[in-house]
Amino acid sequence: MYRVCQDFLATRNQMSKTPRIRIPPEVKKYVFQRDKYQCQSCGKTTVETNLSIDHIIPLSRGGQNDISNLQTLCLICNQQKTDNIDPRFRRHFD
Ligand SMILES: [Zn+2]
Q1: Average pLDDT over residues 17-31
Q2: Of 2.160.20, 1.10.30, 3.40.50, 1.25.40, which CATH number belongs to 20-93?
């Protein structure tokens, strides 16, 4: 029991170390333009769907707020990615 608590706290500390900062508008614009305003997963454009900026490697896994780690995803793909990538959060809904 003690061991579980220790691990839990360690995970919490790691996650709080990575600041989830707001991506500056000029960076968003750069990523959108680089990706031609197209979702990098399903290829939909800004005309067909709402686009968002996604961290390719999530911040919680050591990803950086860097343009090389950012991509354009539509809200649907972004949501699906979030659902798939971290099984810890799914358990609550099973
Ligand atoms: Zn998409």
Answers
A1: 83
A2: 1.10.30
Every domain of the chain and the residues it spans: 20-93
In angstroms, what is the span from residue 2 Cα to ligand 1's centroid? 43
Predicted TM-score (pTM) above 0.85: no
Quick check: 54 and 73 in contact, CB under 8 A? yes
Residues bordering ligand 1, an ion, CB closer than 5 Å: 39, 41-42, 74, 77
For residue 66, give the amino acid letter. Answer: D
Distance 20 CA to ligand 1 centre (A): 22
> How far, in Å, is the centroid of ligand 1 from the Cα of 19?
26
8 A C-beta contact, residue 33 and residue 65: no
